[in-house]
């Protein structure tokens, strides 16, 4: 990915936080007909001395698990939000008109070796951990044990596990760092005026990068 120095985010904690907070990734692999892209929720796990592991599952009917070339590294793309940025928000635009639209976004790319895991016990443990992570904080969290055992067994037979041993994490925080302070504040104000969740999230990201 094109990565100008001022947009480079190399803090491992920041990168890991994005993968935990925005776990739905686009997993890119290479198949016999070319590139395969599958949106999958992935669970990041720390790994002593490394960049960690990503675990998830796909439907058994999905050809990705048997068509992907395991000798070629997989690429998981995570997004932590984006927003259109209007040049009308820049005070400098009023001064000289030299401004154009752009798009702000935060993305993390995880690259590593893909492994296929067709093991019912492994999958049962993974599904339990995924469920616990995403149900936490709910008034009545759903648990795997809430469903009939034979139903869960059938569901587990219909999926296949995947694991990526992450070799490299790359983060790009394009949040108006290349703009002067007044323009960054204009972006924050413009996004906040829009008021939707995505705009408010990006306003906070621009503010944090400006601190």
UniProtKB/TrEMBL annotation:
Pfam families for this protein: FMN_bind_2
Query: What Gene3D superfamilies does UniProt report for this protein, alphabetically?
Result: Electron Transport, Fmn-binding Protein, Chain A
Q: Which InterPro entries match?
A: Split_barrel_FMN-bd, TR_PAI2-type
The chain's coiled-coil residues are: none
Query: Could you tell me the superkingdom of the organism this chain comes from?
Result: Bacteria
Q: Would you tell me the protein name for this molecule?
A: Transcriptional regulator
Can you name the source organism? Pokkaliibacter plantistimulans
């Amino acid at each position: 990915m094109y990565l100008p120095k001022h947009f480079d985010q190399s803090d491992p904690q920041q990168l890991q936080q994005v993968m935990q907070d925005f776990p739905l990734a686009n997993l890119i692999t290479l198949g016999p007909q070319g590139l395969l892209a599958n949106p999958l929720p992935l669970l990041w796990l720390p790994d002593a001395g490394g960049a960690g592991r990503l675990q998830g599952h796909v439907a058994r009917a999905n050809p990705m698990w048997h068509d992907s070339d395991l000798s070629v590294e997989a690429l998981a793309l995570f997004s932590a939000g984006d927003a259109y940025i209007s040049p009308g928000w820049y005070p400098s635009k009023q001064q000289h008109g030299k401004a154009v639209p752009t798009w702000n976004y935060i993305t993390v790319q995880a690259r590593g070796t893909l492994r296929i895991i067709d093991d019912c016990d492994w999958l049962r443990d993974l599904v339990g951990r995924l469920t616990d992570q995403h149900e936490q904080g709910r008034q009545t969290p759903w648990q795997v044990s809430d469903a009939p055992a034979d139903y869960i067994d059938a569901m587990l037979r219909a999926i296949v596990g995947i694991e990526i041993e992450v070799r490299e994490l790359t983060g790009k925080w394009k949040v108006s760092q290349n703009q002067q302070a007044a323009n960054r504040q204009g972006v924050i104000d413009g996004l906040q005026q829009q008021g939707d969740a995505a705009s408010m999230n990006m306003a906070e990201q621009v503010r944090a990068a400006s601190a």
